[in-house]
Amino acid sequence: MNVLRLALAYARRRPLATAFNVALLAVGVATITLVILLSGELEQRLAREAAGIDLVVGAKGSPLQLVLAGVYHADVPPGNVPLAAVEELARRPLVQQVIPMALGDSYRGFRIVGTLPAFVAHYGASPASGRAWAAPMEALLGSEVARTSGLAVGAAFTGAHGLAEGGGDHDEAPYRVVGVLAPTGRVIDRLVLTGIDSVWQVHGHHDADEEHRDARAGRAGPPAGAATPPPPAREVTLALVKYRSPVAAASLPRAINAETVLQAASPAYESARLFTIFGVGTDVVRGFALLLIVASAFGLFVALVQALDERRYDLAIMRALGARRTTVVAVLLIESLLLAATGLAAGLALAHVLAASVGTWLPAAAPLAAGARAWHAEEWGIVALALGAGIIATLLPAWRAYRLDVAATLAEG
Amino acid sequence: MFALTAIEHRYGAAVVLRVDAWQAGAGEHWLLAGASGCGKTTLLHILAGLTTPTAGTAVVGGTDLGTLRGAARDRWRGRTVGLVPQRLHLVGALDVRDNLRLARYLGGVPEDPARLRALLESVGVADLAHRYPRELSQGQAQRVAIARAVVNRPALVLADEPTANLDDAHAAAALDLLRGQALANGATLVVASHDARVRPLFPHVRALPPRDRTASLRGTAA
User: Fold this and answer.
1) Statement to judge: residues A337 and A403 lie in one domain
2) What is the SS3 assignment for A107?
3) Which of A141, A280, B5, B107 could be disulfide-bonded to A322 (CB atoms 3.0-4.6 Å)?
4) Residue A363: is it exposed, middle or buried by C-beta count within 10 angstroms (0-12/13-18/19+)?
């Protein structure tokens, strides 16, 4: 027999009230934890994807759109810009590296990105099988693309016009898979990579219908080399820029925006802005979850006060049997903490399970499931909050138990 | 075993109890007699260290209770006194065996399953060890309460109106059990009772006078 067993015995005595309070607390804890897990993972992913990219340059328009399209591959790009303007940017002394990207087509919803090998190096990716592209219409697949589509080295596929599924197919210009990248956990896993000239070649057909037909008639199988001459005005969609020194941040974006046809957008700034926008939404959910936790603490308080009315004879006899004041207070406190800890543990477990399976109930958020595996520092705050609520709910009953007049209570019973 | 000297207890201005001197030897069985409301329960609580008298000294088992405070007094009580309250007050959340284990735990006495079994056997409730108090008859509950009072082998056993609401047969059985257990555990026994059936059974009787009428008129506690 000890204080813990005694507290358990009392908790078992009122199973319905106990279960209700535990469940209420668990739901509150789960809600607030889920928000922390998912938004924390989202924030981390946003930062991870933007790592090493100081600027995105592209057509003038919305800087947020530019960042979403260029860094997160989550929006359509504003438009195209002349390759010459991007090349001019690369020659500036403050710029270390410029990686141009030509967007426009997709394969089964995965974007086809025409770019330079430096793009693969930027994401720290390397082929798990095959090699990088070397000639036009050769494609290197991100791991997720290969896994989902089942394409392997040697397979052929055609891109669809546009960035979403269901665009018109470029049947006449098939790509050939020459390599598949190892998984990186970054956005490159979901991209189809090829040379910029491949994209030009596919889209060149629209611009020059004559060549289009010639090419179709004269070619069977993948194109080998420059079967089609590049279109006259060579354009790219956007480019990722790395500074040579942090000093560049002070002047370069403004210079680009003022002096060139390009627009410069900072991924760090834009994603922070994005996060503040939907941060309001998560704040509302957090507030609601806090309300649930407060409600459960209040429920615990009411249950304890009610229980104390019945239980003061028990407390009196315990004192008569030799229990100290602090012992009877400890019984109440431990009982309350036991319930709070149970609700807390159930809530945390529920949140992690829900976050881990987020893909099944919110397919768009599937990549955020990774957040379920880690313990976030903010969760310690929830632990403190739930246990603190348990303690506060016990304060008044504990004080009454401490002050109990043992002799009078025994005599009145 | 205990000695009370010039005990006086008041609620507000009303004197509810006055005992000039009362001494009991170790192992003696005492009846504390008197009408209802004459202060028997208060006197038992003073002996148990639950109530501190307004004036006077109570020395129990060689300890002057006036010198004990707080946790030290609780510890002393757990080791020295076994109390059978009038309403028994078994802990409803615990079964019979756990009620006894609770008494050992709170008295700071190590667990002793063999002692519990033997004790439950000797008060005749061995087969009820896993019943909860609400499942017991009044007589069974009283046996458990008596077992609980002696489980730590206290030097002093106090019982408050143990025969109230019991018919003759059950009253006799309860008193036999109390006296037998006190004897078996070498304890001094004080039974507070207004029941005339009890009186012939006790060699030592301490009678409290009825409460002072004027005092109770002025008293705050009815």
Assistant:
1) yes
2) strand
3) B107
4) exposed
Count the Cβ atoms, other than its own, within 10 Å of residue A131.
Answer: 11
Q: What is the mean pLDDT of residues A179-190?
A: 90
Option in A12, A313, A319 nearest B74 (CB): A319
- Global pTM reads 0.72
Q: Are residues A202 and A81 in the same domain?
A: yes
Same domain flag for A65 and A40: no
Q: Can you tell me the distance from the alpha carbon of A143 to that of A59, in angstroms, rounded to the nearest whole number?
A: 30
CB of B125 closer than 8 Å to CB of B147: yes
Distance of CA A248 to the CA centre of its chain: 29
Nearest Cα of chain B lies from the Cα of A384 at a distance, in angstroms, of 30
pLDDT at B67 over 90: yes
Beta-bridge partner residues of B204: B30
Q: Which of B74, B87, B90 sits opposite A324 (nearest CB)?
A: B74
Domain extent, residue A189, equals 55-265
Chain B nearest CA to A389, separation (Å): 25
Name the residue of chain B whose CA is nearest to A410's CA. B85
Q: What is the DSSP string of A272-335?
A: HHHHHHHHHHHHHHHHHHHHHHHHHHHHHHHHHHHHHHHHHHHHHHHHHTT--HHHHHHHHHHH
A217 touches chain B (CB under 8 A): no
Whether residue A61 sits in one domain with residue A34: no
**ipTM, two decimals:** 0.90
Fold for domain B2-217?
A: Rossmann fold (3.40.50)
Tally of domains within chain A: 2
Q: What tens digit of pLDDT does each residue of A340-383 get?
A: 999 999 999 999 999 998 888 877 777 788 878 888 888 999 99
* Cα distance between residue B211 and residue B208, in whole Å: 8
- Judging by beta carbons within 10 Å of its beta carbon (0-12, 13-18, 19+), is residue B87 exposed, middle or buried? middle
- The token duo for A348 is 């945390």
| A-interface mutation test, from B40, B50, B54, B153, most A Cβ less than 10 A away | B50
In the block, tokens 């088992």 appear at B61
Q: Residue A337 in 3-state DSSP? A: helix
